[in-house]
Design goal:
369 residues; mainly beta; Tachylectin-2, Chain A; 5-stranded antiparallel sheet; 23 strands; 8% helix; binds beta-L-arabinofuranose
């Protein structure tokens, strides 16, 4: 899954390596110092700071509950597992909820909200979660592998937005793959968007059943339509799907579905939904091309017409986000790996997001040049 490394880092790391290998020779030392100086001038300056540095966090899903911001991230750890195409090194075991009264204000880590050991059906890898509030209850939705190694999506409930959450005894019936994102429309109907290819296993569920020997990446047919993100209406109790999950249709400006080979535009993982000026904005990651893109539709279940990129590649392999309105402004919560320089030890960040008058989203560069 996440093996290939992006090229954002080499200049900085090469300078460090030169210093380490230069040894004691005077000329080598001077050359190393000069080179380090030159490279440090090239060092990217990050647009935003990590929200929290005491733990590694990723996949931030932000919500405003009772006038406060709550961020539901993955809690990255180093389990000593080597990088592989399955993403086994993303071996997270629990969730912590972050909260803050204002953007730029103090960020509180509210401790463990849910531990994998307290999810009866789960085995490992608590990936990107989301949350919702309805009927006086807070819901935490999370992807985790079941005992057979297949990702499914669980639900847990709490009376507090920061937990602790109590997991349901079984995964959401009919759920599969990763990265749930729950959106509640103005009429009170909630929808769950979910799925991810490669390590997210969407391609292993095409028959409706999990095939452990299915493809490791996608359907292997470059010209065929790409695998789609899924969307399901949520039942009133928010613990079940109301009907079968459907494909989120993603088309270009001519109405043609994006193809498997279109790695710069096709859906990979990390979907999110927000509504702006009556339009539905389906946003997602292109995974191996490291872009966050958006597509616009007239209905919450699609179809959605591809519009473009709104976040350029961050430092680190994965990119994942949420978009939330707070006190009249819109914000993008995202992650990179500024603190560790390692793909699976990430940190969440926030920056303002702007909708242009024509409804497009202003491109965000995670670096200041
Ligand atoms: O954090 C593990 C996985 O990495 C998430 O589920 C993906 O969206 C990617 O960010």
């Amino acid at each position: 899954m996440y093996r290939q490394l992006r090229s954002a880092l080499p200049a900085v790391f090469a300078a460090a390596a030169l210093i380490v290998t230069a040894g004691c020779g005077g000329n080598a030392k001077t050359a190393a110092a000069d080179s380090a100086k030159a490279d440090s001038a090239k060092k990217p300056k990050f647009l935003s700071k990590p929200l929290i540095t005491s733990i590694y966090t990723a996949d931030p899903s932000a919500h405003v509950f009772n006038g406060k911001i709550y961020v539901y991230p993955s809690h990255d750890i180093d389990a000593g597992i080597a990088d592989n195409d399955n993403g086994d090194e993303y071996a997270m075991r629990d969730y912590h909820v972050l909260s803050m009264d204002s953007i730029g204000g103090k960020v509180t880590d509210n401790g463990v909200a849910l531990d994998v050991k307290d999810v009866p059906w789960a085995s490992k890898q608590m990936w990107a979660p989301d949350a919702a509030f309805k009927n006086g209850t807070y819901y935490l939705y999370f992807p985790v592998r079941n005992k057979e190694g297949a990702f499914q999506i669980g639900a847990a409930t709490s009376t507090s937005p920061v937990g602790p959450f109590k997991a349901q005894p079984e995964p959401i019936p009919g759920s599969f793959s990763i990265d749930p994102a729950v959106f509640t429309d103005d009429d009170g109907t909630s929808y769950m968007y979910f799925g991810g290819i490669w390590g997210g296993q969407l391609q292993k569920w095409v028959t409706g059943k999990y095939d452990a020997n299915g493809s490791k990446t996608d359907m292997g047919k470059p010209n065929a339509p790409a695998l789609s993100c899924k969307v399901a209406k949520m039942s009133k109790d928010m613990l079940h799907f109301d009907g079968k999950p459907q494909d989120v249709q993603l088309v270009d400006q001519n109405g043609v579905e994006l193809a498997t080979k279109d790695h710069d535009r096709r859906f990979f993982e990390g979907s999110f939904m927000h509504k702006y000026n009556g339009k539905y904005y389906f946003t997602y990651s292109t995974g191996d091309t490291h872009l966050l893109c958006y597509a616009i539709g007239d209905k919450p279940m699609g179809k959605f017409v591809y519009q473009g990129v709104f976040l350029k590649p961050v430092q680190g392999w994965t990119t994942h986000h949420s978009i939330v309105e707070f006190r009249g402004k819109w914000y993008l919560f995202y992650h990179d790996n500024e603190l560790s320089g390692r793909n699976h030890l990430r940190n969440v960040k926030v920056t303002e997001l702007t909708h242009n008058p024509d409804g497009s989203i202003k491109m965000i560069d995670p670096f200041v040049h």
